[in-house]
Fold:
Amino acid sequence: MRRPWIKILSSLIALLALFTALQLTAAPAKATTTYQIATDSTFPPFEFANSQNKYVGIDIDLLHAIAKDQGFKVNIKPTSFNAATQGVQSGQMDGVIAGMSITKEREATFDFSKAYFMSGVVMAAKPNGKITKLSQLRGKRVAVKTGTSGAQYAQSIHKKYGFKIVTFDESNDMYQDVLTGNSAACFEDSPVMKYAIRQGTKLKIYTKPALSGPYGFAVKKGHNQKLLRMFNNGLADLKANGEYARITKHYLGAKGSSDTTSDRTFLGLLKQNKGALLNGFEETIWLTIVAIFFATLFGVIVGLMGVVPSKFFNGVSTTLIYIFRGLPLLVLALFIYTGIPSLTGQKIPAFIAGIVTLTFNEGAYIAAFVKGGIHAVDDGQMEAARSLGLPFGKAMRRVILPQGIRIMIPSFINQFIITLKDTSILSIIGIIELTQTGKIIIARNLEGFKVWTIVAIIYLIVITLLTWLSNWVQRRVRL
Structure:
């Protein structure tokens, strides 16, 4: 006769497998004229979110104008520069527009449009500081942004001038590293650096533009050639009818678009961005709730597999816990979001990739304390139940689990808190939760300290409430 615990585990595993399969294949059907376009969420004046939390900038406005001119639609996916390019390489995205310089190395992986902008790299440092030219950088740290022309330029001259390169994913973090004195200078694209200075960043440009090169719209090599042709045709039309000049002048002219007149106090920033912060907070809570549900399901299944009288299931449980606890969450997120699609050709929505990431990672920790909670119950309890004639499954349900659950409950709540904090890592794949919202706001106003303080306070309030709940549950469990 088949044992009840085997039937239960088989049913739960089948349910989880069915849900995962449905989610991975349930990408909503979209019209063939709608393209998923990746962009860098923090690269003003080429792409950034304005005070209404709407994405604008030279790249964004050009793309929308070209799409209108050529009769296709675009769905903008803001993320980091690295995630944007990897998204196109893996087939998750149809194209990328992110102030991306056309280089021979990149042309081996991407097909580029005709150049839509010419830029150059400049060095910026503190005003009235000791660093005013490249020769003074010897033995110093120089900050760059990952994947940019500035990083490429710094790499090409760092041996000649004897400086050390440190990299950042966000422009504001790079600027702050110079402002705090950790780095002596930074290398940035000329129009981006000028925009930052106009926004109030206390840096000064000390060199003329170097490594001048063109920006281009890119698609995966050999793919989306129709989209590339439409971009080129639309760009030609915009240059002919004057729309291109109007867009670039709007952001780069002497009175270009900026955010310098807004209230920069803590209260002012909170009022201006309360809608964006609320949306980011709601996304964080939703991610946490959905992830903890599936992580709990996964963790309970794997945890129970570790305590049943079966060496095979025990081995599977130990292996899964070892793998998913051992992988850094960031690596796991990028592997699921960009690695798997590059192998299978099947797109995975960012939200689903985030949920799967948290399910496996947090679920592994839940599985570990489920096993621990059950093992913490005295062995004599199971022996007594079996001596009374109870089969293993019934003894587990009626005797062991009720005692083990009392031990596990506080850990479940603590894991909920950890999951809430871990959602911030998912900003790397473009999920606009609270942390990514903070990055987007900072890209517009460059008020890093104040915005991160507001975000930190929001996290602390929620975590404090959950900690009180955890303490209350622990007191109730002991009664």
